[in-house]
Every structure is written in structure tokens, then in C-alpha cells.
Write a structure and sequence with these properties.
Blueprint lengths: L5 H9 L3 E6 L35 H15 L9 E6 L13 H12 L4 E8 L6 H11 L4 E8 L3 H7 L5 H13 L3 E8 L6 H12 L7 E6 L2 E2 L3 H7 L8 H14 L5 E4 L9 E3 L6 H14 L1
Parallel strand pairs: 1-2, 2-3, 3-4, 4-5, 5-6, 6-8
Antiparallel strand pairs: 7-9
Helix pairs in contact: 3-4, 7-9
The structure holds iron/sulfur cluster (SF4).
Length: 302
């Protein structure tokens, strides 16, 4: 089967390969500090889904450092300048609290958008952290470079969401989605496959819901549930309260999900990679390259 992959979308849109730079906005998360909940979503590690980003440097410094990291991983073969997406990944990047003010949010997003090598700015956040002032800033930055807003919905099943402690209801997501699309922003939604208590039907229901959104969803990221050391999920896993998916199960569900999504929706990710040093399960997911190749091979075969 074919799907609209991020690589091909980036090539079509920007005319070549684009690399992601993992950055930190210096934000925390309302689901960790008691505003919405304590301790965060059960699967979230202390790095707040951004275990590869730096925390204390300016955006410009982070960009330079992240570029070096990318260049050492993918050595340059010529002098053609590389294109990058500035990805504010860790915690909730539009949560105005502590050292992150509206002013510093604007300043940091602008610093990324005005950087010559950056072709798009991606912001990972929650739908309940998109107040009108934040929307105004995102819209302003979107005039300079495309802004992608990434929302960690994970599931439309309210029961599952309550179990892992998402801290907002589906209505909050749909309201934010409508406002983001009305403002002309590009929206990517994260979905986790294999959440405790979810059947295959539950997972497909989430994808069916997202596939029916109007206007059509711009991007979707599929992530295999990882159990990471130090999370609440790890305690439940060690108590034997749930099992993680095996590779065959993941392939099968992912294939069914991909068949449901509209052709216009770009598949930004077909699985994720939890930081290896704290990965408890499933261990088969640790070899990212092998997993991705096997997944792609499976998808081609169906
Ligand atoms: S909303 Fe995101 S950053 Fe916050 S606890 Fe959940 S996964 Fe972690």
C-alpha cells in the first residue's frame, strides 16, 4: 500500500530533503505541575517527549548545536545548504508559565522562523494551551515560515485518556483544531497505538475520527506505546497490568490505520523511538532502523 509520507511531502513542498532540529522552548507542562494534573501522562518521561532537545541555550545556539548533531549523523556529501525544521518538541511549548512568557514565546519562535536555514517551525503542544494571545503569535510567525502545531491527542477514547491522565477532553481538542485551521495553521495530531486497555477497534476509531475532520487533517504521527523507565506506565507494566504490542500486531494495526486516512493527510511518522537508555519495553523497538525498514517492507506488501 502507498501512503502520503513526510519525506515525499517535504520534497514536494521544499524541493529537497529537510532535517529536523530538536529544540526546547524552555516550557513545562500543565499536566505535570498541578494545573491540569500531577506527574504528567502515564507514558511521559521526565524529558517531556523531548529527550533529545537542549534546555538551557538560546534558540540560535540550540539550532547550531542541533545542526551539528544532524550533520554528524548524516554527513554532508556536497556544499548545498541544508534545510531544517525547527521542532520545539519537549513538554508543552505554548504553555505560558514560569520563565516562558508571551513575550519570550514570540521571541523564541521568531528566532527560529527568521533563521535562514529553517524552512518551517513545528511546535508540540496541548489543545488547552492555545489561548487567543498564543494563537495570535503562532499566526504572526506563520506569515514568515509555515508553522506546524503538533497536538498529542493519542486517542479519542475518553476512558483510555482518563487512565493515562491526558487532562483534557475530546471537545477541547476539536475546539482547538477548528481555531487552528481557521487561523491557517498546519496541524499534526499524534496517536499512540497500544495504549493500555485499547482494543484494535479503539485504535481504528481514533483514526476514523481524525480522518473525518473538516477541514482535512494536515498530518498524523503514529507512535508505538513505549514503556520508559521512571514513568507511571513503567510501574503498571512491572505489575503486569498490561502488555506491549509485538511487531506483528503493530504492523497489522498500523496498516489498517493507514488505509483509513485521507490521501491528503501526510503521515509524519509510522512509529516513534523512545530514548534507548530508558526503554523498558517493547525492546524490539530499540533498533529504529531495522524496525522502520521492516515496517516499510510490510506496508509495501499489503
Ligand atoms: S501533555 Fe505531553 S509533555 Fe505533558 S505530560 Fe502529557 S505527554 Fe508529557
Amino acid at each position: 500500500m502507498e501512503y502520503n509520507s513526510l519525506d515525499s511531502y517535504l520534497k514536494r513542498t521544499f524541493g529537497g530533503k529537510v532535517y529536523k532540529l530538536a529544540l526546547s522552548m524552555g516550557a513545562t507542562c500543565p499536566n505535570r505541575d498541578g494545573t491540569k494534573g500531577w506527574g504528567g501522562c502515564s507514558f511521559c518521561s521526565a524529558g517531556g517527549s523531548g529527550d533529545f532537545a537542549e534546555n538551557t541555550l538560546s534558540v540560535g545556539e540550540q539550532i547550531e548545536l542541533a545542526k551539528k548533531r544532524v550533520d554528524s549523523k548524516f554527513p554532508k556529501k556536497n556544499d548545498v545548504p541544508r534545510m531544517y525544521i525547527a521542532y520545539f518538541q519537549s513538554f508543552t511549548s505554548t504553555y505560558i508559565s514560569g520563565s516562558l512568557t508571551l513575550h519570550s514565546l514570540r521571541e523564541r519562535l521568531m528566532a527560529a522562523a527568521l533563521n535562514k536555514c529553517v524552512v518551517a517551525v513545528s511546535v508540540g503542544t496541548r489543545p488547552d494551551c492555545l489561548e487567543p494571545e498564543v494563537m495570535q503569535i503562532l499566526t504572526e510567525v506563520n506569515q514568515i515560515k509555515p508553522v506546524w502545531v503538533e497536538l498529542g491527542l493519542q486517542t479519542v477514547n475518553e476512558k483510555t485518556a482518563a487512565v493515562f491522565g491526558r487532562g483534557y477532553e475530546l471537545g477541547t481538542f476539536t475546539d482547538a483544531y477548528c481555531r487552528l485551521k481557521k487561523a491557517g495553521l498546519y496541524v499534526v495530531v499524534h496517536v499512540i497505538l497500544g495504549l493500555p486497555g485499547e482494543s484494535e477497534d479503539d485504535m481504528l476509531e481514533t483514526v476514523r475520527f481524525l480522518s473525518g475532520l473538516t477541514p482535512v487533517l494536515d498530518g498524523i504521527k503514529f507512535q508505538l506505546l513505549h514503556v520508559l523507565r521512571g514513568t507511571r506506565l513503567a510501574c503498571d507494566y512491572e505489575k503486569g497490568l498490561f502488555e506491549t504490542m509485538d511487531f506483528e500486531e503493530y504492523c497489522s494495526v498500523l496498516g489498517k490505520c493507514l488505509k483509513l486516512i485521507p490521501k491528503e493527510t501526510v503521515v509524519h511518522r509510522i512509529t516513534g523511538d523512545g530514548p534507548k537508555r530508558i526503554l523498558i519495553a517493547p525492546l524490539w523497538s530499540a533498533d529504529k532502523k531495522k524496525v522502520l525498514n521492516s515496517l516499510k517492507k510490510y506496508l509495501l506488501s499489503i
